[in-house]
Amino acid sequence: MTIHPQLRRSMERAVPLVRLNGDTLPGRRAEFAEQLQTIRREETPSVVTEDLLIEGADAQAMAVRIYRNLEGSSPSHPGVVWFHGGGFVLGNLDSEDETCRLVSERLGAVVVSIDYRLAPEDPFPAGVEDCYRGLCWTVEHADTLGIDADRLAIGGNSAGGGLTAAVALMARDRSGPALAYQFLGIPMLDDRCDTESARRNVDERVWNTDLCRDCWELYLGPDRETPSPYAAPARATDLSRLPAAYVLVNQLDPLADEALDYAKRLAHAGVLTEVHFVPGAWHGFTAYLTRIPLTKRTNERWLEAMAEALAVAR
User: Residue 23 catalytic?
Assistant: First the structure.
């Protein structure tokens, strides 16, 4: 692999990742939670958070975390509903806490992060239905939250990017809520895992194709038939009438080609689409190497694009 110079040292220290299945998943979840505690975070003193329980599926409680920027006096702010990554099987509200703080700080946005159900305990469609339900709740409570419902975006990284694409399709097909923007960060879109980038990027030290296949099997089940586009958005045949999109792609990611293909199809369907291709980068590097220039530049570009889409004065 031709690795970006800023990522070489991290790759040299990396060890093979454990395959994901019913036996290894509990340990991997605990390890993932521990890793989150060791990452050096950017300070965002202007952002405050509030954890709430809202009504989820079958009247069960679902957790959300709300981020507000204390600076500025406007009564109405852009809104961003966020779906964390983790291959549909890992993660929680803490997984992308820094990213949500960054969005709130830089855009003055109210961010609502959704703690959706995880597979295999709750396979598809549980997670994506939770994400859609969280979006609907945000719109229903827009006035209370101080959100301008005409400036509403959804976004996420990895599986969260795939869930973003799926929720955009659901919002279109179910006649709402209306969305102004979708951020598809290194999105997990295609259960087939049969692209050139999937075949090439198999290094066990970073997120690889075997892990992608593990997650899809846990999410969809081993005896699945052709999945719904709400599970694997690459399966969608109609991408028209979707909100403007930003697609973040990392060169050394097994998901790279499916993301590029989805971006091309969005553009051909008449959707305003911007693509940022990060050279020599592996999947999810921004989550762990938060202070290197490449991460800062990558984040600044999509934040700038989202700010423009949501009419945020910079």
Answer: no
